[in-house]
Amino acid sequence: MDLINALNWRYATKRMIDRKVSQKDLDTIKETISLTPSAYGLQPYKVIVTENKELLQKIHQQACPQLVIEQCSHLLIFKAMKTVSAEYLEEFLQEMKTIRNSSDEYIDGYREKINYVLQNPQIDIFRWTTKQAYIALGFAMVAAAELKIDATPIEGFNPDALNKLLNLDTSKEETVVLLTLGYRDEAEDHLANVPKIRKPLSELIEAL
Amino acid sequence: MDLINALNWRYATKRMIDRKVSQKDLDTIKETISLTPSAYGLQPYKVIVTENKELLQKIHQQACPQLVIEQCSHLLIFKAMKTVSAEYLEEFLQEMKTIRNSSDEYIDGYREKINYVLQNPQIDIFRWTTKQAYIALGFAMVAAAELKIDATPIEGFNPDALNKLLNLDTSKEETVVLLTLGYRDEAEDHLANVPKIRKPLSELIEAL
Predict the structure, then answer these.
(1) CATH code for the domain in which residue A165 is found
(2) ipTM of this predicted structure
């Protein structure tokens, strides 16, 4: 299967050459993120896409010391919502009603289900929205691999510094994970040709 | 691109017909999960795969009232590690040393980087391992879609009840998310032919 080949080809690229990802490929990755499922379909996150060298340099200096931040063609910055406001929810439900021609009863029932989560004091909403963003991260990585674009997920950054640099209102959203896009520099990247390390399938997957 | 077609085809299937996913396709999905990247390559999660009707019935009764749990061909249960033990870490590093022929200096530096996270009191390790499991969830969903297998991610279950049913040692691991695999029952599933609801790309993705 092509997917398996693509996933064997990909790795967490640490050095990239100076080559841009095409608009067409970038659009495919954006569309993939858009098509990613999320709890109740709420998509409680946003993604910043930047190729602005000045901004990338600042991010490298102030929030993430990895060289690939400066070298990449594009950087995706995933931001998760801190809360899902009643306004956001109602806009979503209105869209659902319009697109699916849903009955008021259906919408009311759906609102109730969502509010069961949103108003549950045992559920940490930011933790929940972050998990949704990670599904989108996964989808974006698969899309990149299938397009033979290198992609490096990065958790090792300073979110406070990055939130500040991006002027985020952190009562509403915070950066949660990064993904660089570009093309590997095989000559300079010591990880370019090393074998993957994976648990044996029998340790990862249990049949019951 | 095939990926986009596959993702437009997929949806959170609520009713499935009585048809088994083939061993070949199941193996591809397992391989995809195995190839999913994780922080430092630690793969701090496991996945239970079951098609045991008795167990599925119990899960349906005790931990997750969604009908698709009983109807699916296979259920994947993602479990995230509560802690990454020194023993687990050393086994991983030993594997790295063997597979990549890494120097002791490299291994020591890598251990130090990982321990910076593991020993950071500000980092909630279970939250972190859960996020890694969600990347694998995303990869598995894409694989299923490309194989034209329906897949429903499910967060709405009672983890305590499921942990208990599976006899998990919850000091070591907990169930975090489910994925049913199978084939849609178009006649019975009211979601089978409704349009997707997605934010406009301009609201989901910001260019900076």
Answers:
(1) 3.40.109.10
(2) 0.97
